[in-house]
Amino acid sequence: MTAAHAESMELEVDGPPSRAAALASRGLEAAWRAGLLPRPILDPLAFEAAALGKRARDSFGPVQEWRTPYRLLVQSLREEADLNPLGLAMAHGQVVGALKARIRAQELWQQHPEILTRPIPAPVVILGPMRSGTTRLQRLLACDDRFAHTRLFESLHPVPTRGRVLKTCASLAALRLFNPAIPAIHPMRARQPDEEFGLFSLSFGSAQFEAQWRVPSFAAWWEAADTGWLYREFRALLQTISWARGAPVDRPWLLKAPQFLQDLPAFLDAFPDARLICLDRDLERVVGSSASLVWHQMRIQSDTTDRAWVGREWLRKTRLRRERALAARRARPDVPQIEVQCEAMDADWESEVTRIYDFLGKPLDDRLRRRMAGYVAGARGHEGHRYRLEQFGLSREAVLSG
Question: What's the mean pLDDT when you consider all of the chain?
Answer without folding.
Answer: 92
